[in-house]
Design brief:
Layout lengths: L2 H16 L3 H14 L4 H13 L3 H14 L4 H17 L3 H14 L4 H13 L3 H14 L4 H13 L3 H12 L2 E4 L2 E4 L1
Antiparallel strand pairs: 1-2
């Protein structure tokens, strides 16, 4: 394994990625993975670039590979499962996404992003009771978490708990406007 080549390609990758030249950045990652197929940072960023390019099936393959390697750090495991969950959500594989976010929670039971995303998926599935449970767990950890405030507020409106729902919508978005019979989030 040529460590110098990998360092050089990572430097090139960082330059291209910062310039938003995802095609050349991805080519650099390919060279790194050719040299070391299990290089976790290159696998992770290959998945991220595929998400940015809306190539969700390819992204999923990279995140699955990352998880199978069993990254050497808790943070990388959380990132792998979290991004796999987001990718499965984009692919409308909602049960798989919930499973991925639950894996995140096994590693970090107070991960607000995972709790919020599970709540959002259950809301999408019209399972409002489970959605409510996960939003409340998330908000117990951080009562000002904007994504959860907005999602929970919207859920409460669907459950005809208007006053409480509007309170959370205001917390999440900052601005709520009434327009005839509709509530608009500004």
């Amino acid at each position: 394994m040529d460590i110098q080549l990998i360092k050089k390609e990572f430097a090139q990758f960082a330059k291209f990625y910062k310039e938003k030249n995802l095609k050349l950045a991805f080519l650099c990652l390919g060279k790194i993975l050719k040299e070391n197929p299990n290089q976790t940072e290159a696998i992770f960023f290959s998945g991220i670039i595929n998400v940015q390019n809306k190539n969700f099936k390819e992204a999923k393959n990279y995140f699955l590979k990352l998880i199978k390697i069993k990254p050497d750090s808790l943070e990388k495991g959380i990132e792998g499962f979290f991004n796999l969950g987001m990718t499965n959500y984009k692919l409308n594989l909602l049960d798989e996404a919930i499973g991925n976010f639950n894996e995140v929670l096994k590693l970090d039971d107070s991960n607000k992003g995972a709790l919020n995303n599970i709540a959002k998926i259950y809301k999408d599935l019209n399972n409002f009771e489970k959605s409510k449970i996960y939003y409340e767990k998330c908000l117990n950890i951080d009562p000002e978490y904007k994504n959860a405030c907005s999602g929970y507020g919207g859920l409460l409106l669907k459950l005809n708990q208007h006053n409480k729902g509007l309170k959370y919508l205001r917390s999440g978005s900052g601005f709520v406007r009434f327009n005839e019979d509709k509530v608009e989030i500004i």
